[in-house]
Amino acid sequence: MGLKLVNVLAILVLSLLASTTTSQADVFDVTSSIYGGKPGSDIAEGLAKAWRDACALESASKVVVPSGAYKLKEATFEGPCKAPIEVQIQGTLQAPKDRSSDTWVAFSSIDMLTLWGGGTFDGQGAPGSKDGDIRDIRFSSITNSIIMDITSLDSKKYHISISECTNIVFDHLTITSPTNDANTDGIDIGSSTRINVTHTNIATGDDCIAVGEGTNQLLVTDVTCGPGHGISIGSLGYKPDEKPVFGVTIMNCTLVGTTNGARIKTWPDSPGASTASDILFEDIVMVNVENPIIIDQNYCSGDEDRCKQNTPSEVQISNVRFKNIRGWSATPIAVNLACSPSVPCQNVELEDIDLTYNGNEGSLSSQCFNVRPRTTRVGKALACANLPGLPSGDSPPPPPLYDYLSPMIYTGGPDNNSCWWPRPPVMGYLLISGLGLWLLQGLLQAYSKL
Questions:
Q1: I need a surface site. Which of 5, 155, 259, 370 has the fewest CB within 10 A?
Q2: DSSP 324-378
Q3: Extended strands (E) in 193-310
Q4: In whole angstroms, what is the distance from residue 404 CA to residue 324 CA?
Q5: In this structure, how many other beta carbons lie within 10 angstroms of the beta carbon of residue 297?
Q6: How many Å is the Cα radius of gyration of the chain?
Q7: Measured between alpha carbons, how far is 18 from 16 in angstroms, rounded to an integer?
Q8: Cα–Cα dist 339/295, whole Å
Q9: Is 2 helix (H, G, I), strand (E, B) or coil?
Q10: For 407, phi and psi rounded to 5 degrees?
């Protein structure tokens, strides 16, 4: 109790200091006479100039887009900057219907960025117009930063892309697209370390969150997903020389009306071997979800010819735990673990699984291929009904994979390094307090030196 009180007092003092620093930041308002931005007009030129001026400043700065609707042809916020920098979007930025590049708004090579303000990035996408690798908002090579309280609406294709980033908190985002709008992933994460997505609502026509190759030490908490295709690790195994995925934690999430729930997906006919390991799905609520728990190593969406080759996936999946997953399935097969015959899944656990099915297409069931998961407090119908004699909770447990005292529960990877995040009460105070933005950035920067 004493330690907790010390932590709280320290946070309050540091937050007060941080808020003082923030209040002294130089402000670059795109609607000022210097930059000439006006509601209803294209502010791309003024916004670019405001960013250049703010980024060149040797003290904390803030670029502001006030309330109102503004057209924005495209924008690139590129660093490195000389000091911590904020971008405060209070209004709505509207993308053009026809775009000339694959990225609408890009943030790259920036340390200590804060993007916030309650504003909206309106991609003005239309169902069916999804040609090309289009990203509405792209974060690349961003470190020690906070993205919070923004909305991404009706993306042209993918909403938010994260690549080559380290130590970023994404907090209180709202991401929406029409249900029938294919390939409108909410958040795509790849080749990034220590990313935290929390308190976010995602409703799209594709994956709410997709975890790509090279991602490690990822924490996703308190996310509501649906409609959409669920929260997915993958798809993996599509390209040669893919980097490992490890240390992924999905906790305290709710999925509503999605086609998948907790999913790992890999391509067959992989051009090279790769791995996905140390993955936890815990405390997940499923509401009318078609495939609540699924490993699919024969994933062929958009490239069905690869499945016709009858060549199995070469992605080795290991150390995966599905724990305390409850709710109801929209289909009879609530657990479907279809692993590769070439590299069967290793050390998969089902624990405290409580799913029901009330439809008329059969009775509740499960199926498992090329995997023999360990089950603890899982009903017979959900415990790989097609496989007899699975290891149960009475069997000797495998080595612990997770440190449950910390929200960043991954404790070791291929190089046996460890990582950590603040304990839950501390992280809670940090995320809730609007005064703690700069403190969080300082902490994230410190973690990068561990």
A1: 5
A2: EEEEEESSSEEEEEE--SSS--EEEEEEEEEEE--SSS---EEEEES---EEEEE
A3: 193-203, 209-211, 216-225, 231-236, 245-256, 262-266, 274-289, 293-296
A4: 14
A5: 30
A6: 23
A7: 5
A8: 7
A9: helix
A10: -65, -30
Give residue-wise pLDDT tens across range 162-205: 999 999 999 999 999 988 777 899 999 999 999 999 999 999 99
Q: How far apart are CA 290 and CA 218, in angstroms?
A: 25
Which secondary structure element, helix H or strand E, spans residue 316, and what is its range? strand 315-329
- 327 vs 360: CA distance, rounded Å: 17
Distance CA 431, CA 217 (A): 18
Residue 76's H or E segment, with its range, is strand 75-78
In the three-class reduction of DSSP (H, G, I as helix; E, B as strand; rest coil), residue 45 is classed as helix
The model's pLDDT over 212-242, given as tens digits with 9 standing for 90+, comes to 999 999 999 999 999 999 999 999 999 999 9
Q: What average pLDDT does this structure show over 51-80?
A: 98
| Residue 161, strand partner residues | 138, 188
Measure the CA–CA gap between 252 and 198, rounded to whole angstroms. 10
Residue type, 110: I
The CA angle 344-347-349, to the nearest 5 degrees, is 115
Alpha helices in 95-215 (DSSP H): none
Structure tokens at 350: 């089902």
> Tokens standing for 101?
């590049």
Buried b (16+ CB within 10 A) or exposed e, 227-260: bbbbbbbbbbbbeeebebbbbbbbbbbbbbbbbb
**Catalytic positions:** 206, 229
Q: In this structure, how many other beta carbons lie within 10 angstroms of the beta carbon of residue 315?
A: 31
Contact 190, 167 (CB under 8 A): no
Phi-psi label, residue 219: left if phi above 0, alpha if psi -120 to 50, beta otherwise: beta
Q: Please return the burial class of 172, using the count of CB atoms within 10 Å of its CB with bins 0-12, 13-18 and 19+.
A: middle
CA distance 44 to 26: 21
> Cα–Cα distance between 222 and 197 in angstroms, integer?
8
Mean pLDDT for the chain overall: 85
Residue 308, H or E segment:
helix 305-308
